[in-house]
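Following up on my earlier thread - several people asked me to post the actual chain instead of describing it. Fair enough. Here it is, all 84 residues.
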Amino acid sequence: MAKKTKNPDFEAALGELETIVDGMEHGQLNLEESLRQFERGIQLTRHCQQALRDAEQKIQILLKEDDSSKPEDFESTDLDGEAT
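Reply from S.P.:
Thanks for posting it. Predicted structure:
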């Protein structure tokens, strides 16, 4: 069973991703650690992309020109495909 970790907020995820990239660019990690960091970087990238899509959807809902429509609820999904 895969270990589930709590997703950080967007800013924290982006900061962690920047740290990973910086560490990998300096080439001081062994192969195993590089792969582990790369995998984590992919997870963080997907999390950030989803957070940006969610924010864009909220903005689109709020900016609809049709005055008769109201903001709609939506479900965001986490990295495991579960609704949040």
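The first helix runs from residue 10 to 25. That should answer part of your original question.
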